[in-house]
Design brief:
By secondary structure, the chain is mainly alpha-helical. Helix content is about 80%, strand content about 0%.
Length: about 500
């Protein structure tokens, strides 16, 4: 429909691992930054919105919650659209939606209008960009995929460090309405990133090969089976089930510390500016941790064990939460943010790399949509649940302890599940049956091959005999010619004597 090129990653095409893939990586870097940093950057305008519409902080906090819910919860919808129309058209439409939502929000007259425009429309637009960009990155990189994922994931802290100060400047200069309008224009860059997502095409065969191989043209004419818009067969994969369960548990506590660390510092008696500096430290460390972890994951002896590296990163993050819960001063929180930024960056760089390695390129579009849907439920439950625990205990220590326990539990789920369940798939009886069948086929073909060899030998012998016979005939012809020549000479001599 509409002549859209559906980039299904043809089976004959190998990942370039470079070339135009670096342009795809740049686009994925920008889109990842917008997707993860924009919900946090919008929080800069909350005070102005509270004054404008006479609402509470909890009412404005729903804007970021709806944005994240749309980013995660619309995963299956994005998978269906990508499998139907391709990555580039979906991302183009998503960029327009993201920009349109912010522009319409600048004309809002109530907080509900902002929920619908910024939360729903802009959130949907960012979701339609985020997931297809990861799919294209997976198709363009194979050997260098861990590095590519790490560099793309670094867009989140970089964009957060840029968008938050920019939002503050726009608020002071133009107010929240002018700031929303300008941010809507900035989000049009998603369309430029979408233009970089060029689909991979199979190499063209020379015309001579096509003429000599008529069967290839017949195969192309045959109707291909329809591609599933949403492949639920991924749930039959034990690796995917273990990953989904572990990721859902992890998300329950992964995003809690960044939300509460600033208020934790204020609770300990620190100034607002000094407390806000903790997020800057966390983001700065996160910025370098993600590409570094991508480089480490791409090493030959680490690549086959990426799942265990991912488990280590999750345990590292959970233990950081558990130890950070005992911080009693600002110095302790600074040390906590440094180590949390390292572990948070490692998790961010490896989470989609591990999923790609488990399900493969063909099923990744459906798998990531279903995983994001499960994570959306955890995102909506985790931080509010931690907030209720804080209201009940009035102690930040218990909030960080709960988050740490949830994250550590997810690490044990994926590590033990991989060790006891996934490794058994390597010794699959079906694979042994296939090997037995191929061996039987070879045994069955041996008599035929022997017959062919015997026939070839008989033909060679016949050829040799025919060659001997033809040689004898040639010798007889030569003798006849010699005799005729002698008779002619005798006749000539007789004529000359007469």
């Amino acid at each position: 429909m509409g002549g859209a090129v559906v980039d299904d990653a043809p089976p004959g095409v190998k990942a370039p691992d470079g070339g135009w893939g670096w342009a795809v990586l740049v686009g994925c870097f920008v889109i990842t930054g917008f997707s993860y940093a924009f919900p946090k950057a919008v929080s800069v305008f909350f005070k102005e919105l509270i004054r404008e519409f006479d609402v509470g902080y909890s009412d404005t906090a729903w804007i970021s919650s709806i944005l994240l819910a749309m980013l995660y919860g619309t995963g299956p919808l994005c998978s269906v659209l990508v499998n139907r129309f391709g990555c580039r058209p979906v991302m183009m439409v998503g960029g327009l939606f993201a920009s349109l939502g912010m522009i319409l929000s600048s004309f809002s007259t109530s907080i509900i209008h902002i929920y619908l425009c910024t939360g729903v429309i802009t959130g949907l637009g960012l979701a339609l960009n985020f997931q297809p960009s990861l799919i294209m990155l997976n198709r363009y990189f194979s050997e260098k995929r861990p590095l590519a994922n790490g560099l793309a994931a670094a867009g989140s802290p970089v964009a957060l460090c840029c968008l938050s100060p920019l939002g503050q400047v726009l608020q002071y200069q133009y107010g929240w309405r002018g700031g929303f309008l300008i941010l809507g224009g900035i989000l049009l860059n998603c369309c430029a990133c979408a233009a970089l997502m060029r689909p991979l095409l199979p190499p063209k065969k020379p015309q001579e090969l096509e003429m000599s191989d008529p069967t290839a043209a017949d195969k192309e004419k045959k109707p291909q089976p329809k591609r599933k818009l949403l492949d639920f067969s991924v749930f039959k994969d034990r690796g995917f089930l273990i990953y989904t369960i572990a990721a859902s548990i992890m998300v329950l506590g992964l995003f809690v510390p960044p939300v509460f660390v600033v208020n934790y510092a204020k609770y300990l008696g620190n100034e607002d500016t000094k407390s806000a500096l903790l997020l800057t430290i966390l983001g700065f460390v996160d910025m370098f941790a993600r590409p570094t972890c991508g480089v480490i994951a791409g090493l030959k002896w680490v690549r086959p064990r990426t799942v265990y590296l991912f488990s280590f990163a999750i345990i590292f993050n959970g233990c950081t939460d558990l130890i950070g819960s005992q911080a009693t001063d600002y110095t302790g929180l600074v040390i906590f943010c440094i180590f949390f930024g390292m572990s948070y960056g490692m998790v961010g760089a490896l989470q989609f790399e591990v999923l790609m390695a488990i399900v493969g390129t063909e099923k990744f579009p459906s798998a990531i949509g279903l995983v994001l849907l499960m994570e959306a439920i955890a995102v909506l439950v985790g931080p509010p649940g931690a907030g209720r625990l804080l209201d009940a205990t009035n102690q930040y220590m218990y909030v960080f302890l709960l988050a740490g326990c949830e994250v550590v539990l997810s690490a044990f789920v994926i590590a033990l599940g991989n060790f006891f369940c996934i490794r058994k798939k390597q010794e699959d009886p079906e694979a042994k049956m296939e090997m037995a069948v191929t061996a039987a086929e070879r045994d069955g073909l041996n008599p035929e091959l022997e017959k062919e060899e015997d026939e070839e030998g008989e033909e060679e012998q016949k050829g040799k005999e025919n060659g001997n016979i033809s040689g004898e005939k040639v010798c007889e012809d030569v003798e006849m010619v010699k005799e005729n020549g002698k008779r002619v000479e005798e006749v000539e001599e007789e004529n000359t004597s007469i």
